[in-house]
Design brief:
heterodimer; A: alpha+beta; two-stranded antiparallel sheet; rod-shaped; B: 5 helices; elongated
Chain lengths: 130, 123
Amino acid sequence: MNDLNSALRITGSGLSANRTWMNVISTNLANANSVKTGNTMPWRRQDVEMQGGPEGVSVVAITQDMRAFPSKYDPTNPNRDSNDNVISSNVDPLTEMTNMIAASRSYEANVEAFNTVKGMIKSALNIGKV
Amino acid sequence: MLDNLFSPVLGNLQSALSKASQRQTMLMTNIANVNVPGYKRSDMDFHVALQGATHDIDEQQIEMADARAQRASDFTSQRMDGNNVDMEREVASISETELRFQALTDLTSSYFSGLKNVIREGK
């Protein structure tokens, strides 16, 4: 039964890593339209760094995307700078959406794997019932 | 006399069950690591492992078969990030292992109920 319990623990680590990823994606999407206001910079896109092995998977770091903030010419925007440009966040909603699908699918795969192991443990417990 | 009752059928069933759950743990690890760049899937050769459980084949032979299965999967990266977890393959193997495990628990159950039947003299 020890092996099956560690299988449960490993799928659990997969679930929590994917949920962390999903949180980061949601934060990026929520801040996608932020712009530079005064001295406050717009939202810098974040990414997760996953590391795994035979003991399961974990998010080791949440990294900052250091790509430059795009600027757009918008002379009527109250947040424009001296050149009439608006500095906006470097989040690309399309990238976030595709990452979101990947994260949610692998979360589902882990749930499915968890249920499979649960069924196996149940059937092992039923051996005693003669 | 009790030793004759419980061996060797029960011992074989037990080691087969433990092999099945070991393999399942490996496959679960593959699923959990599906998004880790550079991760290589792990698997075991169930057939040879089971032969080792029932016949006298040496540890070395099992290790070699496992290494072969491992090497075969090391060179099958289809993705840019070097990860070679193949979701369809994992899910199919998981279903297979689950069914195998269920069959084994059923067999163990029926072995015990047969034993009980004998003890009760068929009453």
